[in-house]
Amino acid sequence: MTEDFMNQLQRIAEQNLADIEQAKAEGRAAIGFYCLYSPKEIAVAADAIPLPLCGTRNDPIAAAEEILPRNLCPLIKSSYGFAVTDTCPYFWFSDIVVGDTTCDGKKKMFELLSRYKTTHVLQLPQNQDPATALAPWRSELERFRKVVEALTGVAITETRLREAIRLMNRERSARKALMDVNKAKPAPLSGSQLLEILFKVGFLANWEKGIHLMEEITAAAKNGSFREKGAESGRKRILLSGVPVGVGSDKVVKIVEQSGADVVAFENCSGYKQTFCVAEDKDPMDALAEQYLSTPCSVMSPNKGRFDLLGEMIRDFSADGIIDLTWQACHTYNVEAYQIAEFVQKNFGLPTLHLETDYAESDTEQLRVRIEAYLEML
Q1: What's the CATH number for 29-159?
Q2: CB atoms within 10 A of CB 131
Q3: What CA–CA distances, in Å, run from 12 to 22, 173, 189?
Q4: pTM to 2 decimals?
């Protein structure tokens, strides 16, 4: 059953490129997004195709390092490397790419990226205080709305925005339901399976197809279709916190599983941070500004929302341990790691394991030693 679903997912992912190409031929625009702060609803309201672009593979990093510093975040280098080598079909399909002023590395990378593709950068506030940050952020989203209207030739009306918000809320609710199956013991989905499903569904141009597929997989997972018979019920339950991971940057997940534990949930922007819903009962631009600004990323200072979310997930997913992952040179997550360890120990009496690494496989065995020692301690 597992193989059937994963094969179906692979076929849909392969068909997706043809679907995007057909949509482009019919005159639809494609908009590439680099961060969770950018509201995809604005693209959807203009009948454009939103595409996630953050690089999760090591392959293009060598090309990126011909221009970018070696001691830079691998996510930034991978994203830029795909652009300069023209090896990412989703970047190639994008008529415009959208970034945000999150970390310094990304801000400067977007300057270089604009040489290859029209780039629009949202000026993101650095705090989430409604009194000082909400109004300028809403203005940024209005500016983005006008850019998308000019690109697509579609007037983004309030009605269109409300419809887009409802569709995206359904998609995020399906994602949450899928991730929530792992609240059960033992976890019905392995971390690797969950990661691959979420990753591939994120690229689909047909939202209804993605929603339906996630609902199908959720139902099958609840029935035990993804777990081998006789699977151990005593495996340690690990919550992965910190930076986003994807297919190609999942070595820590694989090592945890090979070491006899389960990654049951992801407290990051490729995982549970995507489970929010935008309010449907207020002005849509106000609702988008409020919800997206509240994204609990370490670029925000302070970042109370992350601690609230992490605490909620530790309880709901019955976590035995927390691995806090930081990509090399990701200073905001690296600095915040101390507070995370302090918070988890004080409130849950659990030790955390903080790992700093990149996309390369060269430190795999060193990571394995540390992860195995941590699991033994638990």
Answers
A1: 3.40.50.11890
A2: 7
A3: 15, 21, 20
A4: 0.96
